[in-house]
Description:
By secondary structure, the protein is an alpha+beta fold. It has three domains: 179 residues, 2-Layer Sandwich (Beta-Lactamase), CATH 3.30.450; 90 residues, Signal transduction histidine kinase, dimerisation/phosphotransfer (DHp) domain (Helix Hairpins, Orthogonal Bundle); 172 residues, 2-Layer Sandwich (Heat Shock Protein 90). It is built from 13 helices and twelve strands. β4 and β5 form a beta hairpin. The longest helix has 90 residues.
Amino acid sequence: xTNAATERTAAELALGETPSFEELVDRAALAEMVHSFFExxxxxxxxxxxxxxxxxxxxxxxxxxxxxxxxGAGRRALADVVTRVKxxxxxxxxxxxxxxxxxxxxxxxxxTYDDRQLGRIIVGPYLPPGSGDPPESLTALDPKLDPxxxxxxxAEMPRGRPETVTQIVRHLTKTLxxxxxxxxxxxxxxxxxxxxxxxxxxxxxxKNAKLQQAFDRLKELDRLKSNFLATVSHExxxxxxxxxxxxxxxxEGIAGDLSPDQxxxxxxxHEKGEQLLELIKGLxxxxxxxSGTMSLRKADVDVVPVIRDVAQTLTPxxxxxxVELQVHADGVLPTVWGDAxxxxxxxxxxxxxxxxxxxxxxxxxxxxxxSYMERPxxxxxxxxxxxxxxxxxxxxxxxxxxxxxxPERNRVFDAFYQVDGSSTREHGGTGLGLSIVRRLVDxxxxxxxxxxxxxxxxxxxxxxxxxxxxxx
Length: 472
């Protein structure tokens, strides 16, 4: 919330209407304070709100009043007293005195705060010192009332000098004034805090709306990007196929013999064309995976033959780099439910990646072993505790190459991301292979993550669930 907004809110609260008595004072604390005055002075005290509702009551009905209620005239007289006391306006002096038919007195004092009357304090009934005989107004109410009984009950009434009671009421009023000030301060603080929260909520709502617009815009741009990649890749594929085909025919001498230099140039054209074709295929696959249009022909797949085929395909490349390519499969393994061709693409990408980053004399190992589905260590451990363990086949692609720094292990699965993104990087590539791997593994309900392979290298772990079998 800005300073200007805070100052504006404070000004609005300061100029606003003073809150009610009930909003400024805790009812329980008020009742406790009034009872403490009652215990100290033994004078009945009642505190009323602005609308006449009683907020605190520390009084006991005098035995005299209970006796008067046995008479119809006494009941009517006392009802009139209660009405007049509750409606009596202390006026500008903020204090007033009322004498009951019994001769008892009521002290009424206004509770004023910020030039506004928030309530009233009523102390009484009580008798001044020296009062003894029943007044004529009391004995004249009903001839059936016993004067001796009236005298006896009058003697039990609370006593107090009017001047002293006035001082007590003023002290109580000042105490309440301090409580009201503290309550008003707390109310203003709370109101400003709520206003600040509302202002912050409005700002946050505006920012959320802008973020949503930006998100929708980015989502639309991402869709347009995918469409553009798909269209451009498709349009490039046709002329590139012709380039590769004609370069093959030229290298085979169909158009006539070539000199050694010409043959070298044609082979270079063919090689670079093949590389460009693989890039276009990767873009097309990524576009299909992002749009959800790639169809998988799933069936029961034995992973071991797929892995051996990948190793056989890449053996010439491994020999050329002087890298040993090994395959280890543990016994008879269950089949997985998947698309064999797409799974071959997954392991081909991972193995090619391992070969690319493994120096001469290194080793790339493909291991196939039984396992079960579980989240990798950096995922939510609660999944492992709550989920049913489902049988799976685990494929580990291990290399002795340069390895992947721990902070980069999740980012390498992002499309077009390169750990070394500089223009002078030693190893080429588009950064699509691992992104396609993760998306294809996700499409098979599998998991892929990277483990550390100290002191050098990296281990890519792929877990693919079996169709029905579960493990205890």
